[in-house]
Amino acid sequence: MAEPPFCSDTGWACDPVWEATGNETIARVIGWLSEKPLQIAGILALAYLANRLLRSMIARTGRRMAENADRLGGYMPDGLRTREVDGRAVARAATMSTITRSMATAVVDVVAAAWILAVLGVSLAAIVASAGVLGVALGFGAQNLVRDVLAGWFILVEDRYGVGDTIDAGAPAVGTVERVTLRSTRLRDINGTVWHVANGEILRVGNKSQSWSRAVVDVAVTPDADLERAREILGEVGERMLLDEAWSGLVTSSPNVLGVQRIDPLGITLRVVIDTAPGEQFPVEREYRLRVLQAFDAAGISLSAPYAGGPAAAAWPGGPGGPGSPGGTGGTGTGDAGPSSST
């Protein structure tokens, strides 16, 4: 049977439906549906299935990453592979999995949209040419955005820092990370100020709470003090903190009394370092310093008395120009200055 004239401008299903039913209306409708709407529906269905498959594969990979989250590299001592560290790695794996799934969905959507446009008879060559010219124009204006997004991706992949970490992203942006996106990082400093830093602007970053932390405390005593006895007390105070149930979860090692850190006419500075759980060096420093003051007072060991601008002031917490005072640096001020100080 010859193809009826009304089927010449419809889809391929018009002729077989006319032969099967002899109904022109049904043949026209089915023919029209088979030409473009049915193809578009098939493309959408295929895109949906491809998206689900890709997201499922990425999610499965993310779960495997989470299961192997404790494999963080040989640089970290076995004693520091805590549940907190595992939880951080699990969160990082989940974040990367979510971002990758979103990227996969975007790629599938773009391909499906281009396919549908081709079905509708839109010239893809013209669209690509126009998009190329527009892309070049936007590229100059959005190059900083692209740089920030790429930097954010590598921050996540390389695990430079995460939410809850205390970082130094370049003064004065020093504090605790509250949010990390592909575009920017938000952190809050010790004064409560929120800093929004574009990821592309972070050329170097210091993480003060990744895997493990270290409390560093300098104690300045008078020149005539019994240094051996002072060293013994510093070690004993740290050991008691390690055995104290209230602090044993934060202090992860015995104190390491390094000895004399500095000598000047007004005093002698002794330095102690203690390994702590990630980000817990600041409260440990404050508690340790308080206990040292009490122990020295009981043992009759005097702390040095710095004067304004004097050399011993740098070793005196809270003294003029000292670490605990505004503008002070280093030494015992690490605890008083909170996350914004150096350790």
Given as residue ranges, the uncertain stretches (5+ residues, pLDDT < 50) are 72-86, 307-343
What's the arrangement of strands in the largest beta sheet?
4-3-2-1-5
Oligomer: single chain
| CATH topological fold name of the domain at 213-340 | Alpha-Beta Plaits
Count of helix runs: 8
Q: Which value, in Å, is the CA radius of gyration?
A: 33 Å
Report the structural category.
alpha+beta
Q: How many beta-strand segments?
A: 8
Characterization of the model:
- A hairpin with a 2-residue loop joins strand 7 and strand 8.
- This protein has 343 residues and is an alpha+beta fold.
- Among the domains are: 5-35, no CATH class; 146-210, SH3 type barrels (Roll); 213-340, Alpha-Beta Plaits (2-Layer Sandwich), CATH 3.30.70.100.
- Helix content is 47%, strand content 15%.
TL;DR of this structure?
This protein has 343 residues and is an alpha+beta fold.
List the topology elements:
Elements (H helix, E strand, L loop, with lengths): L13 H8 L2 H12 L1 H31 L15 H37 L4 H34 L8 E3 L5 E7 L3 E5 L5 E5 L7 E2 L5 E9 L5 H17 L12 E9 L2 E10 L4 H19 L33 H4 L7
Antiparallel strand pairs: 1-2, 1-5, 2-3, 3-4, 6-8, 7-8
Helix pairs in contact: 1-2, 3-4, 6-7
What attributes does this structure have?
343 residues, alpha+beta, SH3 type barrels, Alpha-Beta Plaits, 5-stranded antiparallel beta sheet, 3-stranded antiparallel beta sheet, 8 helices, 8 strands, elongated, disordered C terminus
